[in-house]
Write a structure and sequence with these properties.
The protein is mainly alpha-helical and 287 residues long. The chain has helices spanning 24-45, 49-70, 76-80, 87-112, 118-143, 157-176, 178-181, 187-206, 211-223, 225-249, 256-279; strands at residues 4-6, 16-18, 282-283. The chain has one domain: Formate dehydrogenase/DMSO reductase domain (Formate dehydrogenase/DMSO reductase fold, Up-down Bundle).
């Protein structure tokens, strides 16, 4: 069993310290950000009003969790103060912008029957594409700004988190508009396979970053094996990948029931994956 110290515990030994500041709530916040942004953007492209509304509400829920993390809404002022240098500050500014613009578009469609056409439509799509890419990458980029936790400093982490959010959004979007995915059947299984490979490469390569990063990987196996590999990998990646491939090979089998199973499994797996990655963040020894 790997010997570590819990952050905040009274222990005068010199050892690796596991951070306890970030955990399930922060992981869930990251999941909802990526899910909401991807769901809204995909729904915007396909004019799916229900998906757009759901995406905005998911993003609002992530904002509520962020407020809970801060403890006091007034602390948002301090978060926004460092927007030039902090990914967390940039997220605190751009995600509300995403929500505000999304709400305006929904109101325009619901109450006035107005939707952008021509060049205005393309400008709006490009704007939300850029915002979605930012939101998908943001959580991973935030974590790379903690140099003392080498397990979070791998260059692949933002890619893993971005792919995780994108595939969650695609899986949920399929329950709103499964027929749309039929036009591009291999997109979701390809992205799920890419996420599986990227996660495996990340775990294999990050161990070489430092001894603390290796300890983090060991803690996954020792303390969080079922959550990470059982829920995060098998339930959250292997099962959705198998369902997605099955739907591609047997299009007649596509149904709301299968899409729902795939979406639930993917989102639950996304939560487990990020939660464990947060919980095994280990500080190097301080001598």
């Amino acid at each position: 069993m790997t010997k570590v110290i819990e952050q905040g515990a009274v222990d005068f030994s010199v050892n690796y310290k596991v951070q306890t500041t970030w955990g399930f709530q922060e992981g869930l916040t990251f999941v909802l950000e990526g899910l909401g942004a991807a769901l809204f953007f995909l729904s915007l492209l396909t004019h799916n009003l229900g998906g757009m509304v759901a995406g905005v509400f998911v993003l609002m829920a992530s904002g509520g969790l962020l407020m809970m993390h801060l403890g006091n809404p007034k602390n948002m002022i301090y978060v926004l103060a460092n927007i030039r240098h902090s990914w967390m500050s940039r997220g605190a500014a751009l995600i509300p912008l995403f929500i505000g613009l999304g709400v305006l578009i929904i109101i325009a469609q619901v109450f006035f029957g107005a939707s952008p056409e021509g060049s205005g439509k393309h400008v709006l799509q490009v704007l939300f594409l850029l915002l979605t890419i930012f939101v998908l990458l943001k959580s991973g980029l935030v974590m790379t700004t903690f140099p003392a936790i080498s397990f979070w400093n791998g260059g692949l982490l933002p890619i893993v988190f971005a792919l995780s959010g994108l595939t969650s959004g695609l899986a949920v979007f399929a329950t709103f508009s499964g027929s749309t995915l039929a036009e591009y059947p291999w997109i979701l299984p390809s992205l799920l396979a890419l996420l599986l490979v990227a996660t495996a490469i990340y775990l294999v390569t990050i161990k070489e970053a430092s001894r603390a990063a290796k300890v983090s990987v060991e803690l996954i196996a020792e303390r969080h094996f079922s959550a990470f590999y059982g829920v995060g990998i098998v339930l959250g990646l292997a099962l959705p990948l198998a369902i997605a491939v099955y739907i591609v090979l047997v299009p007649s089998a596509a149904s709301f029931y299968l899409f729902s199973i795939m979406a639930v499994a993917r989102v639950v797996g996304d939560i487990a994956l990020r939660d464990v990655i947060l919980k095994v963040g280990v500080f190097d020894k301080v001598l």
